[in-house]
Amino acid sequence: xxxxxxxxxxxxxxxxxxxxxxxxxxxxxxxxxxxxxxxxxxxxxxxxxxxxxxxxxxxxxxxxxxxxxxxxxxxxxxxxxxxxxxxxxxxxxxxxxxxxxxxxxxxxxxxxxxxxxxxxxxxxxxxxxxxxxxxxxxxxxxxxxxxxxxxxxxxxxxxxxxxxxxxxxxxxxxxxxxxxxxxxxxxxxxxxxxxxxxxxxxxxxxxxxxxxxxxxxxxxxxxxxxxxxxxxxxxxxxxxxxxxxxxxxxxxxxxxxxxxxxxxxxxxxxxxxxxxxxxxxxxxxxxxxxxx
Length: 292
Hints:
By secondary structure, this protein is α/β, with parallel strands linked by helices. The protein has a domain at 8-112 and 281-290: Nucleotidyltransferase, domain 5. The chain has helices at 43-61, 82-90, 103-112, 153-169, 176-187, 196-205, 208-212, 215-220, 225-245, 260-264, 269-272, 282-290; strands at residues 8-14, 19-25, 28-34, 70-76, 97-102, 117-122, 126-131, 137-141, 253-256, 275-276. It has a five-stranded mixed β-sheet. A five-stranded mixed β-sheet has the order 8-7-6-9-10, with helices on both faces. Strand 7 and strand 8 form a beta hairpin. The relative contact order is 0.16. It comes from Kushneria indalinina DSM 14324.
């Protein structure tokens, strides 16, 4: 992978919780992070996060190049939604090159270094994709929050919030799990979540990013019956996605994303033998595509 003498190669992995950007200039690489750039949160917000991260990367490299000298390959959550994709591309600044793919595809490229394999990406959202030996690509999920994104952080957080609802209005007894969820919600709100009224206010403004911030609490309380049931269902949903991608169960499967390690233990035994560690990340896959 080599850039033209005057071109900065840039790979981007963007989702609902944040952005990772990897830039390469004359053999030097720098990685920076930024705000959310998943297209479900809006095109303007996505481009702002990406360009701010690009500015940080250039500063780290000691550069001040115009965007016309930057070639970007982006793996963004929501890129498979055609209207969001079109609006995002129309809003693009002038660039040396631009390739927009789903974050699932860049994750697949990074995880298996372009070789046949399957991935299930588990972050704020979830999606699965596979590259078959004959060159075919297949995908599953990616329908977005709140209707899809099974086994994701947002999916876990949304369902866990029901336990808080029940604990605060008397349908269930408050316990350590409900109190920990309230504490996590309170850190994301100007007012503590301590009663039905403050919870209603929190829920009325909660988006996928906020719900995903509750996922670590679910994992930490995995022995609680409700958390355990959610995590078991997440494992079953991962298996369902893999079987849809590869009914013969022959492709190696890499779990990727921020929740991959925590959810690996909940994958059914029948597919654990197919699990492999990803060779690289989504942002590394994006940089690989930028150099093609």
